[in-house]
Design goal:
With about 200 residues, the protein is mostly beta strands. It is built from one helix and 18 strands. Strands 1, 2, 5, 6, 7, 11, 12, 13, 16, 17 and 18 form an eleven-stranded mixed β-sheet that branches. Strand 17 (about 175) and strand 18 form a beta hairpin. The chain starts with a strand and ends in a 6-residue tail after the last strand.
C-alpha cells in the first residue's frame, strides 16, 4: 500500500458524518446481566462525506484521487473537523534519543486513552519544553519530533493534525444535478482511518 501526503478536498457538504468506532462483544449471562469485552483497545474512525453541486474541476480532483488510490488500495490525508487540534498537549519527558511520537490524550473521569498523531500539520505547530517554546524538527509524515534539548524536560505541543485514511469502498458513486440550468456533480465518498491500534 502506498500513501499520498495530500489532503482530499475540504469543500464537503453539510451533513457529513464520521467518528470513532469500537468493537465490543456482549455476552448475556443467565442472571440477566451482560458481560462486555472490548475487542479493540483503540477505535477505528470512519467517515462519510458528500461533495454536493461541486464544479467540474473539483469533481475531477475527487475522481482523480479515487483512481490514483485505486479505490481502497492506497491512503491519503483527511481533515476530521470534529477532532483536529491540540493545545499544550503533554507528550512526556525528553528521552535520551531526543525523539518523541506526538500524541493526544482523551481523558474522562479517572480513565484515559492515548492516540498517536501520525499526520501533524507544519502550519501552526509549536513545541514547548517545561512551558517554553523551543525549536524542533517535525516529521509531518510520521508525527515524530526531534528535540534539540537535553533529556528530562517535559514536552508539550500545540497544533493541528490530519488523519491517514483510505477510501472504504472500491466504488465512487456520483449523480448530476441540473438545477437552474447549471450542472453540478454530487459525489459520496466513505473513508476509513488507517490506525495502528492493537486489537
Amino acid at each position: 500500500m502506498a500513501f499520498f501526503e495530500e489532503r482530499l478536498l475540504d469543500c464537503i457538504a453539510y451533513g457529513a458524518t464520521g467518528g470513532p468506532t469500537f468493537n465490543t462483544r456482549k455476552v448475556p449471562m443467565r442472571n440477566g446481566r451482560v458481560l462486555r469485552n472490548a475487542n479493540w483497545s483503540r477505535p477505528l474512525y470512519r467517515y462519510t462525506a458528500d461533495y454536493q453541486n461541486i464544479a467540474q474541476d473539483d469533481a475531477d480532483t475527487v475522481v482523480a484521487a479515487f483512481n490514483v488510490c485505486q479505490g481502497a488500495s492506497h491512503g491519503f490525508r483527511w481533515w476530521d473537523r470534529a477532532d483536529y487540534q491540540v493545545t499544550r498537549e503533554e507528550v512526556g519527558v525528553i528521552p535520551v534519543s531526543q525523539t518523541m511520537q506526538l500524541t493526544k490524550t482523551y481523558g474522562f473521569g479517572s480513565g484515559a486513552l492515548v492516540r498517536n498523531i501520525r499526520k501533524p500539520r507544519a502550519e501552526g505547530f509549536q513545541l514547548f519544553v517545561n512551558g517554553i517554546a523551543v525549536s524542533s524538527s517535525l516529521d509531518t509524515t510520521t508525527g515524530i519530533v526531534t528535540i534539540s534539548q537535553p533529556p528530562g524536560g517535559l514536552v508539550t505541543w500545540t497544533g493541528e493534525f490530519d488523519v491517514p485514511v483510505t477510501f472504504e469502498n472500491d466504488e465512487l458513486f456520483f449523480s448530476i444535478d441540473a438545477r437552474n440550468g447549471q450542472v453540478g456533480y454530487i459525489l459520496t465518498a466513505n473513508f476509513s482511518v488507517i490506525e495502528d491500534f492493537t486489537a
